[in-house]
Amino acid sequence: LQGLWNNHIPGVRILDNTFSNTGYTSIYLNRVHNPLISGNIIQGGYLGIYVTSGEAAITLVKNSVSVSGHGIKINYFGNLEPGLIANNFILVDGVSESYGLDIQNSSWLNVYHNTVVIKTHIAYAHAFNCNSNTAGTIRVMNNSFSCMNEGYASYVQYPATLLQSDYNNYY
After folding, report:
1. What is the pTM of this model?
2. What tens digit of pLDDT does each residue of 5-35 get?
3. How far apart are CA 48 and CA 138, in angstroms?
4. Of 40, 98, 133, 152, which sits most exposed with the smallest number of CB within 10 A?
């Protein structure tokens, strides 16, 4: 689903669906305003959920994602109020570059109570990847990040991005 560069789609809701072997991406949202993605089950495919170029608070909760490349990717999402990424289960079991929860160029997010497991055998794998450079705008609390073979449980390119990171499990 894609809005226009100057007219983002408001109030998109994707609730309680099952996506199986959809190919590249199961849920793709571009230029949306205040989306809610909740209770979805994604099995198979390369990228589970990809939300890019959005505004206002994103709510991404209670999803189960099992894919071969990237679990959940948030890119260029600027919020005026904190968005919520919580209570998601992400499993990535593939043979290429892998990210579980990937936050790129985004701000004002609360990342709470997620479980992310990477089972790939590639050294370039991150259970939690954060590559945003807006200082002090992302909270990461009470998550479990696990990279079972090679790679990193957590990789934060600009540590000042994290407003708070506490009570997380890393393996």
Report:
1. 0.93
2. 455 677 899 999 999 999 899 999 998 888 9
3. 22
4. 133
